[in-house]
Amino acid sequence: MKKRSYLWIILGLISCLLLAVAGCSSDKKSSSGAKEKVLKFITVWPANTMDPHRCHFSFILNSGAVETLVGLDPKTTELYPWLAESWKSDDGQHWEFKIRKGVKFHNGKDLTAEAAKASLERSISVNPGVKASLKIAAIEAAGDILKITTEKPYPALPSELVHYNTVIIDVTAPDDKPPIGTGAFMFASFDIAKGAELVKFPQYWNGVAKLDRVIMTFNDDANARLLALQSGDADIIYRPALDTLQTLRKDDKVIVESVPGKRVYHLIYNYAGKNQDLWGNEEFRKGMDALINRQEIVDNVMGKEAVVAYNPFPGNYPFSPDVKPHVYSLDKALQHFQAAGLTVQDGKVLRNGQPIKLRMATYIARPELPQIAQIVQATAKQVGIEMEIQVAENIDEYLPQGNWDLVTYSLLTTTRGDGAFFLNAAFSPKGMQNHGRLNVPELVSLLDNYNQTIDKTKRNETAKAIATMIEDRAYNAYIASPYETAAYRKNVKGWVTPSNEFEFQMVTKDLDIIAE
Amino acid sequence: MQNKNWLLKRISEGILLLWIISLVSFAIVQVAPGDAALSLLRVDTVAVTTEQVEALRQEMGMNDPVYQKYFRYMGNLLKLDLGESVMTGRPVAAELSHAFPATFLLAGTSLLLTIVLVGIFGSLSSRFAGGWIDKFSTGFCLMGASIPTFWLGLLLIDLFSVRLHLLPAVGMANGGLILPSLSLAIAIAPPFIKIFRNSLIDCARQDFIRAARSRGISEKVIFMRHVLKGSLIPVVTILGVSFGSLLGGSVVVEVIFGLPGVGKLAIEAVTRRDYAIVQGFVLSIGILIFLINLAVDLSYRYLNPAISLKEAERQ
Predict the structure, then answer these.
(1) How many CB atoms lie within 10 A of CB A69?
(2) pLDDT (tens digit per residue) in A387-439
(3) How far apart are alpha carbons A6 and A297 in whole angstroms?
(4) Nearest Cα to A215, choosing from A367, A31, A345, A68?
(5) Quick one: pLDDT at residue B307?
């Protein structure tokens, strides 16, 4: 009898389990439309709000549902006319953007200069970052022309209009619903906590999309994204983990694509800290530069998924400095240290008879940075420089405290097809990314000149001159530029891996999926 | 009457506790480093100056004295206004209510699976104490308690999603809750299995059970009415507390399985320094844990009426 009681209880519990499983499975969708082309895409970050003007991530731009006035070509990284057919300015302060005709919002309304004005004004009013970025004093709509006056001459304006928070939406639509944009896809459903289901927009101005539907979700765990691709829950994943790329490349059903990124890992020196006398000395900085084994970092820390960098703009941009030889050499480093007025004794560098002690900050949000710090620390030790590594939880809150000498850092440098963001943020004396508080009058003067130059060729030349000065004088040390990667199943066609997630649509009208 | 007085006492204690929780959640935010200004200005993609950051801080009242901030916070709280998320511009209550269902569902399913595991392993290993089933159960408990939840989650995805293609790797649709719930259940069940097993064995050896058996009461009735009820007291108490910790502590699983829960929301809010969300999260989890503990106390009194009687005697 006792045994039967146990049996009944166990059977009851197993029934509970089965019911739970069945309950969880009840929301399984029935497949509809066998010929429908559906693609599943998993990106890294979610949209933290459905409002594309406030969203902290570029999920909404990436979804292909919205567009900006000015676009950025993912292959050439050149600006191109998008919702604005053309733009011009004679003085860099008074701009005219001609709004493209025949563009419709997803609710059927026409895109007009008035609608674009309302959208930009809303973006500025709800987003202090956009306000700071666009520096707009007045906007006016005249026919199909959008007239923008900036607070002062601002040649970077077209480039800033690439920002994902400046997308053009119908602001008369309810803001508690998915945004009404002009893209090739429109939201069928959108839950910021789960993801979005997008369907093609039949009235898209630039030709109807090849896909019928796109299921776009996110997961910031790289292993989970990888497993989703392998299990067939995803057709495309953005940014698979670095250490899984070799395995993925062996999978004959998957294509792994790596493209040069726009981010540069570098060392920032503290020109206002207790060792400012060292960093203020060009020979000392050059000595530090010679201690960095960039190739080892690219090969061993970044699994060859990066390129060596010596300046903020590595690559073939019109504003990239000419390639110059940089030698990793302890002897050369010691020569520079000696030239800096320090004592070199038995292969060790001394200041006032004592070893130099430095504090190097780093952070784990980018896992390669602490490893780079360790490599630099080990090399410096060989010439007698002691570096204490400090791992900060939030590096941007740690750095203003000033109790550091150098920091491993990561920043986008060639944003929106232009160097304006990086140069101003990192080298303007009050720039928020100028963590080392570097203030060189000659550099600042060049930067002022750059900010006022309207002609594109001259502008690129000035940016190049600034970057060359940064490289030649070893203001900070640029180390490597990591690739951006994506992995997708072989039956996916038309995918273009972007060089970063902030400036491009990822779901495009050309994206397609064919039968396996 | 005793029960009514007890409930009133617990509610008044609860009000005091809520005030303390509100104070703690306010204090946490005040001592936490940083603020939302850098995030709001998109310093990673927009060239802003230190002056612009400072101006925004001033505009948002971040530089106001602490007492002013506290009065503002309490004033809003008394009006049941948790404030707005600085990141989304939406009310905190709306953000939390959007995220809580997924967490409730995950915690509820995990708890259900835990109960099933505890029921099966606990009763079988007590029934066959010392036998191979008992040893297997001990091994299962050791394994469950030792494996990190995130790793177990990845193993389950690898097995059921990648290799067997039975369940989705991410999301909640199409049975997507099963793997995360199982990960959590396997992690939290082991101590309850041991407690339940030992409790069943102890209870079955009690004099009143022997007395019942000698009176000819059927084994089924003895087990259901006496052994099981008596053994459940310690399990229910700790399970209740576990439900509270599941609500706030399942963030790792939420991240791995891409579940849109409140833990994930809180982590993102901390990263973005969206402290209104953090305050709302601490407050709501505090209230929920209080309510769960209250429910556990009530169930405890139901399962063991001797508690109420002893209180009455004392009074």
Answers:
(1) 25
(2) 999 999 889 889 999 999 999 999 999 988 889 999 999 999 999 999 999 99
(3) 62
(4) A31
(5) 67
Of A127, A227, A433, the CB nearest to B169: A227
Q: How far away is chain A from the Cα of B68, in angstroms, using its nearest Cα?
A: 24
Nearest CA to B145 out of B193, B98, B111, B100 is that of B193
Residue A173 phi, psi dihedral angles, 5° rounding: -75, 150
On whether the CB atoms of residues B235 and B88 are closer than 8 A, the answer is: no
Q: Identify which of B48, B169, B218 has the shortest CB distance to residue A231.
A: B169
Distance CA B27, CA B29 (A): 5
CA separation, residue A206 to residues A77, A163, A198, A215, A508 (Å):
20, 21, 17, 22, 11
Task: Give exposure, B21-33, as e/b (b: 16+ Cβ within 10 Å).
Answer: bbeebbeebeeee
Say how many residues make up chain A: 516
How many angstroms separate the CA atoms of B102 and A486, rounded?
Answer: 29
Q: Does A51 touch chain B (CB under 8 A)?
A: yes
How far is Cα A437 from Cα A432, in angstroms, rounded to an integer? 9
Specify the pairing of strand A348-351 against strand A343-345: antiparallel
CB-based burial label for A235 (10 Å; 0-12, 13-18, 19+) = buried
Query: In whole angstroms, what separates CA B94 from the centre of its chain?
Result: 20
What confidence score (pLDDT) does residue A244 get?
86
B297: number of Cβ within 10 Å: 16
Average pLDDT on A357-362 reads 97
pLDDT digit string, tens, across residues A214-226: 999 998 888 888 8
Residues 217-276 of B with CB under 8 A from A: 218-220, 223-224, 228, 255-258, 260, 265, 268, 272
Helix (H) or strand (E) holding A406: strand A406-412
Joined together, the tokens standing for residue B36 give: 């939302």
Minimal CA separation from B1 to chain A, in Å: 36
pLDDT surpasses 70 at A20: no
Q: What is the pLDDT of residue A444?
A: 96
pTM of the model: 0.77
Please list the residues that pair with A269 across neighbouring strands: A406
Query: Would the CB atoms of B123 and A27 count as touching at under 8 Å?
Result: no
| Average pLDDT score, chain B | 82
CB spacing of A128 vs B34 below 8 angstroms: no
Count of C-beta atoms within a 10 Å radius of residue B269:
24
Which residues have a Cβ under 8 Å from the Cβ of A135 and sit 6 or more positions away?
A150, A151, A152, A154, A157
Q: What's the mean per-residue pLDDT of chain A? A: 91
Quote the DSSP letter at residue A30: P
Least Cα distance to B120 among B140, B104, B106, B105 occurs for B140
* pLDDT given for residue A27 in this prediction: 36
Q: Give per-residue pLDDT as tens, B164-197.
A: 878 877 766 777 788 888 888 888 888 888 888 8
DSSP secondary structure of B36-75:
SHHHHTTTTTS--BHHHHHHHHHHTTTTS-HHHHHHHHHH
| Adjacent-strand bridge partners of A142 | A145
Task: Answer yes or no: is the ipTM higher than 0.85.
Answer: no
Residue numbers of A between 63 and 122 with CB closer than 8 Å to B = none
If phi over 0 gives left and psi between -120 and 50 gives alpha, with beta otherwise, what is residue A219? beta
Q: Which two tokens stand for residue B60?
A: 């948002």
